[in-house]
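Record type: ASSEMBLY
Status: queued
Input:
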Amino acid sequence: MEVKMTGIKKSFDSNSVLRGVDFDIRAGEVHALMGENGAGKSTLMNILTGLHKADAGEIVIDGKQQLFANPKEAEDYGVSFIHQEMNTWPEMTVLENLFIGKEIKNKIGLIQTKKMKELANQTFSDLGVQLDLDKDVKDLSVGQQQMIEIAKSLMTNAQVIIMDEPTAALTEREIDVLFKTIHTLTEKNVSIIYISHRMEEIFKISDRITVMRDGVSIDTTMTKETTNDGVVRKMVGRDLEDYYPTKHSKIGEVAFEAKGLTQKDRFKDITFNVKSGEIVGFSGLMGAGRTEIMRSIFGMDPLDEGEMILEGKKLTIKNPSAAIKEGIGFLTENRKEEGLVLDYSLRDNISLPSIDGFSKYGIIDTKAESDFSTMLMKRLNVKAVDEFDPASSLSGGNQQKVVLAKWIGIGSKVLILDEPTRGVDVGAKREIYQLMNELADRGVAIIMVSSDLPEILGVSDRVIVVHEGNIAGELSKQEATEEKIMKFATGGY
Amino acid sequence: MIDTKQMKENKNTRISKDFLGKLGPLLALVVLILLVTIMNPGFIAPTNVLNLLRQVSTNALIAFGMTFVIITGGIDLSVGSTLALSSALMAGTIAAGVDPLLAMLLSLILGTVLGAVNGLLITKGKMAPFIATLATMTIYRGLTLVYTDGNPITGIGDSFIFKFAGRGYLFGIPFPVVLMVISFLLLFVLLHKMTFGRKTFAIGGNEKASFIAGIKNDKIKIGVYALSGLMASLAGIIITSRLNSAQPTAGTSYEMDAIASVVLGGTSLSGGRGRIVGTLIGALIIGTLNNGMNLLGISSFYQQVVKGIVIIIAVLLDRKNKK
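Status: finished
Output:
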């Protein structure tokens, strides 16, 4: 199937999101669609699949003008969209999920399980994937759930599959499986529109790259003919002097020490330290136990063994409240679920961990609270009208700054940042790195968990690699390379 | 990129939406009052208004407590039974010769404890609020029946303080109404001006994020349910005094009117959003409906239908506003 979108324009209210976008898809190619958050990628895809109507422009499929009234119509025609948030029914089996709403029935309306199983098995073997059809979806990994979505779109005879950040929650191994599946699909002449922020992947998997910025398609190039820097420059619209800002902070005494931290079946004998002014990167595959370690340090989950020392004092941390009192801050990996109260104002969000400090006899001094929030918003360059804007109205990058403001606000001595730049656009990423450096300058000890290898290498003073719940290795900034980290992370020595 | 002008516009719509959302229930109340007055001018006679306010007071007190519970995303079905049990204890102890003031205090303590038990089941027992309070609703009611042996407790005596609680007047205003206004003011401050209230909202808005922000979710929740129990027993004192007896079936299905008042006031049943002023207005709407329809001679059977329809309309309008 060949799709050609030309001159697509779209406004919501008075906000013009797309201002003339050209985009085309050839049969059997993987076409990467890139751009910062808010560049208009999702809107463009929603127009293609009929969720939104374009104000101007045309869509031509195989030489014929096409306008889908809704996503269902697009799907029937062979264009399906696999969203970042998957629509699965966790309590139902793989088979039930595959056929939901499309069950094969006989004349009197009874479901033909046998026929459905045959078709499902056929589809999975086409994909080169093995899955137990009778398993409940809640017991599957995210990667396996994604395979269900892909299988679903194949069963509707999809010719174009749109994948929105498909690897966001996958492990390295699952990514490999996904990429193999994508190859199988392209061999069958199915086209993939691949939306992702991960530069490495784009270069590994795509044939062509289209970059969008501020609602305009900047250009489309063959992947072979461009470079990482070239794409970033187009996305940002300016030269990045240096992607990772240089860090000058003086590394001081040991601030935080963990000794033999153990949680049964999760991680074992985790011993490390962080010095004041230092950024320690925690690398490893997804599911290696990095997040679990951090959650335990912060008192969210109990430790079975081990002790923690902060500035020479032994800590007992039973809950986050105790951790905060000791001066530990924790930016969690999913800001929407755990970092923010989305409906609430920026002020209420920023002051939440320190609210007791703004009150006398339990009554809140809202003036002081507002001043405090606006001060932090200014310092972190949060883009909003005022402190009363709801957190949900901000872009990902600005939301992340708000979460950071919370933890800076309590005067954290140790700051744990779990995937601090996930889902954050390139410009805001750099601002966050700069902020981390500034905090380090002030003597804050920073622990950064990240699955982004270039980020780990670019930001950390020291790298600790976790493999299956154990510390597999530790590398200084000078020693650390992608190869060495991957070797530790995959269990090789 | 959203430009500054766009953000300013967003802010303006944000403010006007807030305004509409806050004004909606009040507007409904005003329209309702006008309608009833047109059909029967006797409605706004001072005696009837004071009468109406007194009728409203018990439901309003329970609904105030319920507001906190619902903002955390919970529900308290046990308020009616809590009311009955604490009322029975009070009547029983007075009848046994205990000082009425002390008996009232005991009743309030019992209500608080019964509420705290709900909170413990929900937090430490990790039970869904609906299930936990459904269970305690029947348990507390059962205990009331056991304690009273199924009969009303009478012969409570005629001490001034006991009579005053439900039947007294302060500067011509029924004491239950005074109690309602004082409770409203105190709880308004607690919910909107104090850290306890802020934390209550935060739990309803995002429980995980609150926990990570160092809020002791369990402590706050237990407090919120205890408050609900306290308010139910306070309403119980008024009812006991007015009836001059403790009825084993007192407060049956009171939770429904309380929940309806909270919802009419614009508080979201999914938690995280709400206002106590709204609850007061909601309680007044329900009170006006009851009182007005009585005045107009509408059969109590129809009254139930009308009340239900009003709730549906209110929620539908509220949803439209939020879009």
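Annotation: The radius of gyration of chain B is 20 Å.
Annotation: The longest strand of chain B covers residues 169-170.
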